[in-house]
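Practice problem 4.
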């Protein structure tokens, strides 16, 4: 039995915004996989609910006129995994979605909820970072677009006001030639556990070198992070073991993991360097590259 103080079902986004304005203490409910747990634990901050589950305006995966992708924030992880457009253009996001929980959870948990929860362990955050998504956010004042880079502001915190709703993710056109991406999650029980360390990478190759590398980690800092030092080290570097070692060394400047009951800081640093090499190797192979 959930201890609701108030519950309101929104008819559309405009109605949801109106309800949030009338009930400033309310929390949005989409898939419910996080919110219902908080209710189960009698968290008083979750007792007032505005339900936006299955609003058509928050659904769908479509190709834009510019050949980018628009993904509704209420898209489930099962839909992400199975859709041909995400499989073709955002394979690391599909891999991350497949690493989340089990089939029953993936059938209801939403992409937007996973990001807006603000957890550094959110499995979808790292691929969202490497693909440079823009977030479409609606409020009574109108629509604004913000980068996923910087959207996470602290543990459990995002740059979203109480009367705002994340409507969709917008991905720029993704090149496919000489481009590869990969995702990897380390957890004690794999999909059925929270990530100990998660990472994703994207690389563009040019004549046997790394024209561009994007690398992101979760649970390696208070928020999911892009690894700027590692990315600069990789730029225009040849596909050699020396390059891979240099990237794995420089990534230590980008991360600040902590010790917890799941893993020590030292073990997480070891994982970060090992996983850096693993995902870059997989992305390079996916891009058609060969190590010298």
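Answer key:
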């Amino acid at each position: 039995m959930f201890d609701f103080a108030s519950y309101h079902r929104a008819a559309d986004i405009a109605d949801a915004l109106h309800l949030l304005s009338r009930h400033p203490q309310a929390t949005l409910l989409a898939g419910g996989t996080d919110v219902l747990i908080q209710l189960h634990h009698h968290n008083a901050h979750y007792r007032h609910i505005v339900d936006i589950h299955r609003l058509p305006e928050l659904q769908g995966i479509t190709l834009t006129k510019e050949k980018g992708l628009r993904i509704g924030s209420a898209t489930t992880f099962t839909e992400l995994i199975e859709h041909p457009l995400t499989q073709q253009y955002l394979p690391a996001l599909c891999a991350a979605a497949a690493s989340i929980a089990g089939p029953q959870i993936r059938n209801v948990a939403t992409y937007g909820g996973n990001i807006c929860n603000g957890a550094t362990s959110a499995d979808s955050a790292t691929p969202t970072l490497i693909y440079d998504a823009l977030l479409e956010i609606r409020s009574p004042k109108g629509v604004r677009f913000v980068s996923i880079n910087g959207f996470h502001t602290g543990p459990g915190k995002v740059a979203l006001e109480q009367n705002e709703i994340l409507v969709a993710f917008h991905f720029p056109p993704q090149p496919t030639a000489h481009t590869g991406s990969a995702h990897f999650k380390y957890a004690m029980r794999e999909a059925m556990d929270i990530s100990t360390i998660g990472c994703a990478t994207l690389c563009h190759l040019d004549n046997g070198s790394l024209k561009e590398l994007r690398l992101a980690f979760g649970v390696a800092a208070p928020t999911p992070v892009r690894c700027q030092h590692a990315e600069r080290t990789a730029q225009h570097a040849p596909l050699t073991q020396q390059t891979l070692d240099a990237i794995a060394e420089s990534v230590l400047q980008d991360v600040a993991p902590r010790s917890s009951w799941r893993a020590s800081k030292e073990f997480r640093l070891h994982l970060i360097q090992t996983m850096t090499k693993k995902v870059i190797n997989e992305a390079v192979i996916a891009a058609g590259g060969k190590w010298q």
